[in-house]
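$ ./design --mode recover --in tokens.txt
reading tokens...
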């Protein structure tokens, strides 16, 4: 296992090559790796709807743009968040040009209880991260996005997803990566966030 893959798999946005198609077999190959992720009682509750039709991508991107604009206008970003939000804006503007949009779904609607909620989303997100790693290991890249969920029902209607039976979890734009630096993501060192034995240090 290459530890660099883990530290350099980023939210790829500006580096996505919008001009080079992604073959369906490449997407499926990465999905086949991703589905080796763990899930509660091995339910494997992930379902995929991959969008590569230009008109369909455009329609979903319109919802995404509306949602992202509302998200931006509702917050005052910290200075260290400006770069990420700037590239988020870039992605929103170009989403329809990304060769493939992988819509990750799961059966059922989100439960209210934290225990069930943890299993509901927690049984899908390890697969999502596996997918991002698998893509990156093959020179492709993606970003985990959720902004579209503000319009989940509209998008369900648009794409023929039965809303009451299937929840959308994340939308991953997928493209080949343009050359660029493999920079590890900036993160707070774990030691600063870790306590031992008791939360209150007593
Ligand atoms: C649950 C979740 C939801 C996210 N939603 C969005 C989104 O809607 N749009 C977007 O551009 N990025 C989204 N991101 C990507 C984050 O902005 C990104 O992972 C974070 O800023 C770290 O980026 P880096 O690895 O390049 O440092 C999301 C990430 C997570 C984990």
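writing sequence...
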């Amino acid at each position: 296992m290459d530890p660099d893959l883990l530290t350099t798999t980023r939210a790829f946005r500006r580096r996505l090559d919008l001009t080079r198609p992604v073959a369906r077999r490449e997407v499926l190959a990465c999905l086949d790796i991703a589905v080796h992720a763990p899930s509660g009682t091995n339910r494997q509750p992930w379902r995929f709807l991959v969008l590569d039709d230009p008109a369909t991508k455009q329609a979903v991107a319109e919802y995404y743009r509306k949602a992202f604009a509302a998200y931006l206008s509702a917050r005052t970003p910290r200075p260290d968040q400006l770069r990420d939000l700037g590239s988020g804006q870039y992605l929103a503007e170009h989403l329809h040009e990304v060769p493939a949009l992988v819509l990750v779904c799961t059966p059922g609607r989100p439960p209210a209880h934290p225990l069930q909620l943890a299993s509901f989303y927690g049984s899908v997100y390890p697969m999502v991260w596996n997918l991002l790693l698998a893509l990156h290991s093959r020179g492709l890249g993606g970003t985990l996005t959720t902004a579209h969920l503000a319009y989940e029902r509209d998008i369900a209607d648009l794409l023929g997803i039965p809303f009451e039976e299937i929840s959308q979890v994340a939308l991953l734009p997928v493209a080949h990566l343009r050359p660029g630096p493999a920079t590890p993501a900036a993160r707070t060192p774990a030691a600063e966030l870790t306590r031992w034995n008791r939360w209150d240090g007593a």
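exit 0
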